[in-house]
Specification:
- With about 300 residues, this protein is an alpha+beta fold.
- It has 2 domains: about 15-145, no CATH class; about 150-275, no CATH class.
- It has helices spanning about 15-25, 95-105, 155-165, 165-180, 190-200, 210-220, 225-240, 260-270, 275, 295-305, and strands at about 50-60, 65-70, 75-80, 85-90, 110-115, 115-120, 125-130, 135, 150-155, 185, 240-245, 250-255, 280.
- The protein has a 5-stranded antiparallel beta sheet with strand order 1-2-3-4-8, with helices on one face. A 3-stranded antiparallel beta sheet has the order 5-6-7. A 3-stranded antiparallel beta sheet has the order 10-12-11.
- A hairpin with a 2-residue loop joins β5 (about 110-115) and β6.
- α5 (about 190-200) crosses α7 and α7 packs across α8.
- The longest helix has 15 residues, at about 225-240.
- The relative contact order is 0.11.
Length: about 300
């Protein structure tokens, strides 16, 4: 589906009565063309957004009766049932057009979230997470929201993990001041060489840090070989560089970021020890928070399958 739809002229639908009244008032397209019989929701030429009446439909409350269905392209996105219940069904479509369509027809807001969707009646109201479809009772309260799960850092476990790497971190902090000072310039050619060398340790830009590369780096960091430590720090320093185009010079000029090196080293530990460092926490129904630590756990599960 497209990324934009025009919902100008859409009716305000709050309940079954509004939906049924609107469907009744819309005249079907006449003739024998491919759009004959369709009932566009608003503009007559917007035949990709239609409304229709269905009989003998089972509602979320288990009652059989009439329903009014609002359809975007081939997806029945919003359905109102005769017993006052309703259903919103993005059917897996994450496009903004689908989100805008549903939001224009329900009393509330629908947004993308962590591979699924969230619904809230008002911005400050309880927020419900769902995936396939969300059903509502006659009172407008969601019947089948999913529990929102977030991953939080176990600070005690993270402290213990950092202890394992204390000797290396002391070495790294000292070497960063000497070998990787703030804004120290690296030519494009030298940077390319550093990136190639970093690949020997399963480290490359575009996918750094990640679990596989972090496991390799951590094995070296836990050892006591100073050459391995130097290679590890060189790889992370290369990944942490930023670039800009300098006046009078051709191509990108790369620069070290000491603070970023330390931050990336800590990220490496989180990826490599995700099982020990992160714990799942189930939030109460109606509460949603973005799982900012899901990247560590998700990548870890994918890489270990």
């Amino acid at each position: 589906m497209g990324f934009f739809i025009n919902t100008d002229g859409f009716p305000y639908i709050e309940n079954w009565h509004d939906a049924a009244n609107h469907e009744f008032m819309v005249d079907p397209i006449r003739g024998k063309g491919r759009n004959a019989g369709l009932k566009p929701i608003a503009k007559r030429n917007a035949t990709h957004m239609t409304v229709r009446r269905e009989r003998n439909q089972t509602s979320p409350l288990g009652n059989v009766g009439l329903s009014i269905v609002f359809k975007l392209y081939n997806t029945d996105c919003v359905t109102y049932f005769e017993d006052g219940s309703k259903r919103i069904s993005p059917n897996g479509h994450q496009e903004q057009s689908t989100i805008a369509f549903m939001t224009a027809l329900v009393e509330g807001f629908v947004r993308n979230a962590d591979g699924g969707f969230v619904y809230s009646k008002y911005w400050s109201a309880p927020t419900y997470y769902f995936e396939g479809a969300l059903n509502f009772g006659a009172d407008g309260v969601p019947l089948n929201p999913k529990t929102c799960v977030v991953h939080r850092v176990n600070r005690r476990a993270m402290k213990e993990v950092r202890k394992l790497y204390a000797p290396f971190m002391q070495y790294a902090k000292a070497m960063i001041k000497v070998a990787y000072p703030q804004d120290a310039e690296v030519s494009g050619a030298d940077a390319d060489i550093k990136f190639e060398l970093a690949k020997r340790l399963d480290t490359q830009r575009g996918s750094f840090p990640n679990t596989d590369g972090s496991d390799t780096l951590c094995d070296l960091m836990r050892g006591d070989n100073i050459e391995d430590w130097a290679d590890t720090l060189e790889s992370v320093a290369a990944m942490s560089m930023t670039y800009r185009y300098s006046f009078g010079k051709s191509g990108r000029q790369w620069f070290y970021q000491p603070q970023r090196i330390l931050q990336d080293l800590d990220e490496v530990l989180k990826y490599a020890h995700a099982d020990a460092v992160f714990v799942e926490v189930e939030l109460p129904i109606g509460e949603y928070k973005k799982d900012r630590n899901s990247k560590y756990v998700r990548w870890h599960l994918t890489s270990t399958k």
